[in-house]
Structure formats: structure tokens, C-alpha cells
Design brief:
The protein is 44% helix and 20% strand. The protein is built from 13 helices and 16 strands. It has a six-stranded antiparallel β-sheet, with no helix packed on it. Strands 2-3-4-1-5 form a five-stranded parallel β-sheet, with helices on both faces. α5 (83-93) crosses α7 (136-152). The radius of gyration is 24 Å and the shape is globular.
Length: 389
């Protein structure tokens, strides 16, 4: 009898429970669902944490792609070390000139903008995507935005994204108001196997490929997922390297063998970089490799360095494993790749956020000519063919 009395309750709840468990198990897509629901519920804030900034950035990409054209979006991707810097970056993202105004005037501009949005019936999403690098007093500006939205109902949603340690800061007064308005943190975890397939297919379409099966086999995508453990940045790098090797060897579509070879070459490059950590850039290519050119590297006011171009590939980016390290927040961890092929020396953008440029023109891939000026964030690199001085 007791069992019969409990059965209506147990039958009334399973669907909701199953759905909740399903969202948790879906991992990345579950996080996207939660972010979308927070916006639909007019939640003033959302806290997005993940060990990999690239996974969080991709999640925000997907979320912003899903909102309507009547929603204004602004992304602040650089670190903010002061309240003024945070507000200036925000206003610039909203296409408002911050000028040289003081903090009070900057706040007034932001509030007037939000008031206008409310009058126009438009909602606004602002994401701060380097929250682990934002100083506490800059986070305080985010807190004030959240409190302003809670009070005035402008239709604003603030996304604060960072590494898991961000949660510790948001548990401390006065920042805990952000956490209370955001509710439970959303975790941007690694992609699962299916999400990796969706991601690679999406990137291939953006690169102009109509049929992904003509570019890479399903089994090769599975291997990429396994080797990269669902890390978006690593997936980008390994896929791009696989494309380069497949084109060099005339293989289509990309096979599992090509993927594993690309993975081995990337690991060898990382290991080589680690062994030579601290050495000058010009000493990082084996002297036994025949020189086919050189890169003259200029990074802001730092001394000019020369990188010989041999038979191997040269990785450019912010990551410490790169051959040419550009320590700048506008440069991706794996930004671009200089490749040696039968056609000559090529340059390949590795899906960087801010792009790779040759003589001022943004490129995806380019066959380098002597004298070409390469732009990677704050860094300019000039390519010269041959081994002349």
C-alpha cells in the first residue's frame, strides 16, 4: 500500500529529473542550454568558468549566434587592470567613444546607453572574457552593472567568464552580489565526441568547405577528439596541422594516419621548445636543416630577432611551446604556422581570434614572397627568401 501511495509522486517527477540529468550529461551543450535559459529568464548575470579560455569563448560564440538581431552584444576580451579600463573597454565594445573621461563620466555614458536601449525595446549582452586577469577593483564595475540592472531593469545580461578560481572571488563581499544574481556557475567543460564533430564541421563551413566528408573522415575527427580531449584550442591546432600535412601529401580526405602524424609533429615541436626554453629565437632551428629563408621578428620595443626558416614548421603564438612567442593578449595561444611545402614557404592562420595579416590583408593561408610583411597582433614579421644577410 505504501508503495502504491508513493507511485504518483515518483511518476510525476521522472520527466523533469531525466531532463536535468540529460543536460548535465550533455556537458558542453548543457552549458549552452543553461546560458540560453539564463537569458530567457532575464537573469542579470551569468558566471561561466572553465579550465580552457578557448572552450568558454566558443561557448559564448554559440550563445551569441543564437540570440536575435534585436539584441546588442559587446565582448571585452582583454584584461582590465582598473575600473576606468574596464568601462573604456566596455564602451568601445559598444562602439561608444570613451574619450579621456573620468570614472564618473564613463559610468554615466554606460547608464545612458542602457536607458536608450530600454526605450528602444532592445536587450544588451556584455561578456567579460578574461575575468581571471581582471583586478578586483575592475570586477567591482561589473558588480555595479549587475546591481544597476537588478534595480533599473534595462534588459542587460552580464557574462563573467574565467577559470574555476573566479568562483572564490565572487564568494567574497561585495562581489558576492554577482554570484547571487547569477545563480549556479555554468561550467564550460571539454567538448564531447559529437560536439567535436559539430565544431570541426562548423569551422570547415566557415572556411568555405561545403562538404566536411570531402575534407576529413569521421574516424579522423574521432581521433582528433581523443588526442585533444575536447580542448577547442588544441582541436584547432591539430586540425590545421592535419590539413597542411594532407595537402603536402596529396591525401583527401584527411585520414587517421595523417592526424596522428600531425599530432606527433606538434608534440615534437613542443618538446623541442621546452628543451630550448630561454634560448634566443635564432638558435631554435637545427643548423643541420638547409635554410630556405628567414623571419625578422619585431615585437613592440623589444630587440629585433631573426628566425631561420628550414625544412620544418614554425609555430607562432602566445603559448610557451611556440617557436616564435608573442606575449600579447591579442595573440592566440597557437596563432599561425609557417609551413615548408613543395610550392614554397606558406603561412597558415590557425583560427586565431584577431587574425593573421600579410601586407595589411587578412589571410587564411598564403604563399610567402620575399619581403612580405606579416602582422600577428602587436608583432610584425618580415619574411626574406634565401639565406642572405
Amino acid at each position: 500500500m505504501g508503495d502504491q501511495q508513493q507511485s504518483p509522486q515518483t511518476r510525476a517527477r521522472p520527466l523533469g529529473v531525466i531532463r536535468a540529468l540529460s543536460v548535465m550529461k550533455r556537458g558542453y551543450n548543457g552549458a549552452l542550454d543553461r546560458l540560453t535559459k539564463a537569458f530567457a529568464d532575464r537573469q542579470p548575470a551569468a558566471v561561466l568558468v572553465g579550465r580552457r579560455a578557448s572552450n568558454a569563448a566558443y561557448l559564448i560564440d554559440r550563445f551569441l549566434d543564437s540570440v536575435g538581431d534585436d539584441v546588442t552584444t559587446a565582448r571585452v576580451s582583454e584584461p582590465c587592470t582598473s575600473p576606468e579600463a574596464a568601462l573604456r573597454a566596455l564602451l568601445e565594445a559598444l562602439r561608444i567613444d570613451p574619450g579621456q573621461d573620468n570614472l564618473e563620466t564613463l559610468e554615466g555614458k554606460a547608464e545612458r546607453y542602457l536607458s536608450l536601449q530600454r526605450k528602444l525595446g532592445r536587450r544588451t549582452i556584455i561578456s567579460f572574457e578574461c575575468s581571471q586577469d581582471i583586478e578586483p577593483w575592475a570586477v567591482d564595475r561589473v558588480r555595479r552593472l549587475v546591481e544597476l540592472e537588478s534595480r533599473e531593469k534595462f534588459g542587460l545580461m552580464v557574462i563573467l567568464a574565467g577559470r574555476p578560481g573566479l568562483g572564490r572571488l565572487l564568494r567574497k563581499p561585495p562581489f558576492d552580489v554577482i554570484g547571487s544574481c547569477a545563480g549556479q556557475q555554468i561550467v564550460a567543460g571539454p567538448l564531447n565526441a559529437n560536439e567535436t564533430r559539430v565544431y570541426i564541421s562548423r569551422e570547415a563551413r566557415m572556411a568555405g568547405y561545403k562538404n566536411i566528408s570531402e575534407v576529413i573522415s569521421l574516424s579522423a575527427i574521432t581521433v582528433i577528439h581523443e588526442l585533444c580531449a575536447g580542448d577547442v584550442a588544441r582541436i584547432d591546432t591539430l586540425t590545421c596541422m592535419s590539413i597542411v600535412l594532407a595537402e603536402d601529401q596529396g591525401i583527401s580526405p584527411i585520414s587517421t594516419t595523417v592526424v596522428r602524424l600531425a599530432h606527433d609533429r606538434l608534440n615534437n615541436a613542443i618538446e623541442k621548445r621546452r628543451k630550448k626554453n630561454g634560448a634566443d629565437v635564432e638558435q631554435q632551428v637545427s643548423s643541420s636543416q638547409p635554410a630556405t629563408g628567414r623571419l625578422i621578428v619585431r615585437i613592440n620595443d623589444k630587440p629585433v630577432k631573426e628566425q631561420p626558416v628550414g625544412q620544418g614548421h614554425i609555430l607562432i603564438g602566445r603559448g610557451e611551446q611556440c617557436d616564435v612567442v608573442v606575449d600579447s593578449h591579442v595573440v592566440s595561444r597557437h596563432h599561425a604556422l609557417v609551413v615548408h611545402s613543395e610550392d614554397g614557404i606558406g603561412l597558415l592562420d590557425l583560427g586565431s581570434t584577431n587574425g593573421t595579416y600579410v601586407d595589411g590583408r587578412r589571410i587564411d593561408q598564403h604563399l610567402l614572397q620575399s619581403g612580405d610583411l606579416i602582422g600577428v597582433g602587436d608583432c610584425t614579421i618580415t619574411y626574406f627568401a634565401g639565406s642572405g644577410t
